[in-house]
Amino acid sequence: MIARRRSAGRYAPTTRAPGRSAPCCTAHRLSRMGRAGSRHSSSERRQAPRRGRARERTEGGHSSWPRGVRITKHLPTGIPEPRLSRFVFADTRLAWLWLIVRAYVGYLWIKADRDKLGSPAWTGAQAGVGLKGFVEGAISKTSGSNPAVQGWYAAFLKDFVLHHLSAFSYMVAFGELLVGIALVLGVVTGIAGFFGCFMNMNYMLAGSTSVNPVMFVLGLFIILAWRVAGWYGADRFILPALGTPWQTGSVFHRRQPDPAES
Q1: How many angstroms separate the most distant Cα atoms in the chain?
Q2: Is the CB of residue 67 less than 8 Å from the CB of residue 248?
Q3: Which helix (H) or strand (E) covers residue 155, if one does?
Q4: Beta-carbon neighbour count of residue 212 at 10 Å?
Q5: Are 68 and 57 in contact (CB under 8 A)?
Q6: Which pLDDT does position 26 carry in this prediction?
Q7: Tens digit of pLDDT for each residue in 62-98?
Q8: Exposed e or buried b for every residue in 47-56, given b needs 16+ CB within 10 A?
Q9: Cα–Cα distance for residue pair 128/136, rounded to 1 Å
Q10: 9: helix, strand or coil
Q11: Residue 161 to residue 31: CA distance in whole angstroms
Q12: Are 193 and 223 in contact, with CB atoms under 8 Å apart?
């Protein structure tokens, strides 16, 4: 049989062996489409990680603070963070506001600890005497139909705290001081806010109101704004170095081996 082939811009006849026919155009096209499809799928696989990275946006929108801390907008089981929440709690443009809040709360902690730290009844030879009066006063508030101190917390104070007054006295005195200094300087602000809220909660459970509710609410806001609350402080350098539980910081980041050196 005679088949035609394209050569130098012209069709020239060529002979084929008897019993063999010219290639089927349809089969040839399907083969080419299959090869193109495989190349396209492999290209998609190569581009998939890029698309995943493109979905990530840096916190704060315009800044890289803190480095390595990112959010994913499209998660299969996650809810995207609202713009207002991201602006208030994760944007460095409001870092000045959180500086005022944490400095105020830190000042209140240092002021409350000023008398305890230098008092023998809290940190001296008679450590525990000052705390004993506070605990006994809380235990006495469990009477009535709506007591100021719940029975389970009064039992904790009576059966555990009263037997370790000296240790708890030092913990309270130095804990308030450390939380106040950490908030003022912006050192691990979110953790300092958490321990501050923990102490405020215990004081309120013991029947002491005073300024504790205000400090507790402000402490919760500081915890929510941990990403930017310490921007004007030591956290600006500490957080990128230490990292987060889901992102390794520069201190713990392993240096990748250079192929040229090996």
Answers
A1: 115
A2: no
A3: helix 151-159
A4: 20
A5: no
A6: 52
A7: 444 455 445 445 556 778 889 999 999 999 999 999 9
A8: eeeeeeeeee
A9: 12
A10: coil
A11: 81
A12: yes
A 10 A CB-CB count for 174 gives: 15
Pick from 122, 81, 98: which is nearest to 183 by CA? 98
Does residue 73 sit in helix, strand or coil?
coil
* 20 secondary structure, DSSP code: -
85 is written with which tokens?
């929440």
DSSP E strands in the chain: the ranges are: 2-7, 10-15, 56-58, 70-72, 243-244, 247-248
What lies within 8 Å, CB to CB, of 105 at 6+ separation is 183, 193, 196, 215, 218, 219, 222
pLDDT of residue 60: 42
Q: Can you tell me which residue has the tokens 């902690």?
A: 109
Instruction: Give the residue among 101, 73, 64, 44 at the shortest CA–CA distance from 236.
Output: 64
Q: Which residue is listed with tokens 């450590």?
A: 127
Model confidence pLDDT, tens digit, residues 6-29:
444 444 444 455 554 444 555 555
Name the stretches of the chain with pLDDT < 70.
Answer: 1-76, 253-262
> Which two structure tokens, joined as six digits, stand for 247?
């992102």
